[in-house]
Known about the structure:
Blueprint: H1 7-17, E1 26-27, H2 30-36, E2 39-44, H3 54-62, H4 67-72, E3 74-77, H5 81-93, E4 97-102, H6 107-117, E5 124-128, H7 135-146, E6 149-150, H8 157-174, E7 179-183, H9 188-200, E8 205-211, H10 216-223, H11 246-255, E9 258-262, H12 264-278, H13 288-294, E10 304-309, H14 316-324
Parallel strand pairs: 2-10, 3-4, 3-6, 4-5, 7-8, 7-10, 8-9
Antiparallel strand pairs: 1-2
Helix pairs in contact: 1-3, 1-8, 3-5, 3-8, 5-6, 8-9, 9-11, 12-13
Amino acid sequence: MGLPISLHDIRAAADRLAGVAHKTPVLTSRLADERAGAQLFFKCENLQRVGAFKFRGAYNALAQFTPEQRRGGVIAFSSGNHAQAIALAARLLGMPSVLVMPGDAPPGKLAATRAYQQGQRGSEVVLYDRWREDREAIGKRIAAERGMTLIPPFDHPHVMAGQGTAALELLQETGSLDALLVCVGGGGLISGCAVAALGLQPGIAVYGVEPAAGNDVQQSVARGEIVRIDVPDTIADGAQTQAPGKLTFEVIRQCVRGMLTVSDVQLIETMRFFAEHMKLVVEPTGCLAAAAALERVVDLRGQRVGVILSGGNVDRVRYGHWLAGDPA
């Protein structure tokens, strides 16, 4: 079966994003290398616009709207980062946006999303109960009622291609890598990154990393079909997805070397590492790939390894408790 996106699509997305998205830095750390037993290159998407890689896919998708779609506006559902990305992209492109977000989303993500929407007529945030309600059903209903275009957080070729530009930039800067570690929620980021990485370097090993409490993609790959799980109980709120998408699963099945998991305890330790040693704020979901490297979940000894830090949008109060070792 052919893949839903290609390296050509990712290069085209990079052209659309040029001068709009940040070309985020790639950082290194001697201490991180010692802990991992490998040479690590951190792609800092926590320093991207809206504080996460999601802006890449959101803007790439909205930039391809027809004039009629722009007039109707965009609707999306998200735990936070995709919502912020859609809100900002819609504002930049002059269209209304409606974001369906869980009521227990981090307050900072809710506030930021509303702030990006300010001044845009017809824009709003709609809250739902992530434990009892179906966000996709809510999004589809509102889209039909208001004539808006639904852009899902990961299972869309334009979103996937946009996310892949993160790996494209990383490899263009670092040159040859042996492996690439990418965090996984619904699979949009790793899908785009895997296609970009293998397109540029066919021999590279791409690994996905999920929270141990939410390994729906790992289970899906093992069974050879999409597995749906209950809402995961994890601090990695951006990876509380219940199943991979149809498009993303196909890319993962064909292009990803292996799926790994890390615990919430390991995520907190990794957040502390970035705060103390690299002076970086990285949210729990953003730490997934790095935790797998720093905790040696996979053997990377002696290799050159790319690591995507996917975001830095974390509740300040909970973040302080995590760093201090207090319950949050």
